[in-house]
Amino acid sequence: MKPERKKRQIEREFGVPIAGEILDPSLWTNTALKKMLPGPIDLVTLFGRTAPLVVDIGCGNGRFLIGSAVWRPNYDHLGVDPKPVVIRYATRRGNQRGLTNVRFAVIDGLKLLLEHLPPGCAAEIHCYHPQPYYDVREVHKRLITPEFLVLVHRTLIPGGTFFLQTDNPGYWQYIRDVVPHFFDFYERIGRWPDAPKGRTRREIMALRRGLPIFRGSGSAKLGLSLDDAEMLARQLPPPRFDASRELRELDRDEGA
Predict the structure, then answer these.
(1) How far apart are alpha carbons 205 and 201 in whole angstroms?
(2) How far apart are CA 119 and CA 68, in angstroms?
(3) Residue 175: helix, strand or coil by DSSP?
(4) Helices and strands, counts by H and E, the chain
(5) What are the CA-CA distances from residue 126 to residues 6, 56, 80, 162 (Å)?
(6) Nearest CA among 125, 90, 95, 104 for reference residue 13
(7) What whole-number distance in Å separates Cα of residue 62 and Cα of residue 201?
(8) Per-domain residue ranges for the chain?
(9) What is the DSSP letter of 85?
(10) pLDDT tens across 41-63, in order?
(11) pLDDT at 241 (0 to 100)
(12) Considering only CA atoms, which of 201, 215, 191, 207 is closest in space to residue 256?
């Protein structure tokens, strides 16, 4: 008699599988970066090796980054989000899949780039659905600004890639106007081929409501010095836009 084959434990969210399978607890790892020391992160010590780094700013519950870590074991991955509750979901999922090439931390993305990631350390930086902050008292918190783009450009290796996605048409128009000053930026027509149902929880929710998703990526402009980038940033406007009722409702439901 053949031994009974153990059923794979696949986790789903809104019916869409999350990459990797849940392993026996004896194989779980620890993907939480619980304490961020002052100064640049020692990435070699953190991951125990030298490998290309993928950074996900505002990683949420980790859906995209976990998928990338599963499918690209030769890359290291760092996901950050200021919300502890979503990082708890992300670390649990990373732990359960026995991943050693991903770490998650509770920290603001701007602070991460400004204080903790050394220049030229990342092969890719991803930012999916940055918070639009519709309240006039909070619009100054919007992440995608010229100053932030300078930091992204500085953190990427020469020619490294910056990925952006939003469901807010106003935010996307601003991105299209400002990001090409720092990156050779291209709008993507159609869904990401690796995740046609959505790379993130937010994308899945927006697609189910029939909302448009705007996607793009670009490589860091070569020959743009830090001084020139900072001078350019001072000449560019901050993000200004509004939101439809449908987007405000989606923001409310996502936070529920």
Answers:
(1) 6
(2) 23
(3) helix
(4) 9, 9
(5) 36, 5, 11, 6
(6) 90
(7) 9
(8) 12-254
(9) H
(10) 999 999 999 999 999 999 999 99
(11) 83
(12) 201
d(C-alpha 71, C-alpha 193), whole Å: 13
Residue 243 CA to residue 90 CA, distance in Å, equals 28
**pLDDT tens-digit readout, 90-117:** 999 999 999 999 999 999 999 999 999 9
Structural element, H or E, at residue 223: none
pLDDT of residue 247 exceeding 90, the answer is: no
Between helices 245-254 and 201-208, what is the axis angle to 10°?
Answer: 130
Cβ(32)–Cβ(104) below 8 Å: yes
Q: What is the DSSP letter of 25?
A: G
CA distance 61 to 85: 8
Judge contact between 121 and 158, C-beta under 8 A.
no
- Distance (Å, rounded) from C-alpha 139 to C-alpha 241? 9
CA-wise closest residue to 126 among 187, 184, 53, 197: 53
List the CATH code of the domain at 12-254. 3.40.50.150
**122-128/156-166 β-pairing:** parallel
pLDDT of residue 255: 62
Could you give phi then psi for residue 161, rounded to 5 degrees? Answer: -110, 135
Secondary structure in 3-state letters for 31-43: CECCCCCCCCCCH
Q: Which two tokens stand for residue 152?
A: 């992204």
Q: Which two tokens stand for residue 234?
A: 């001072």
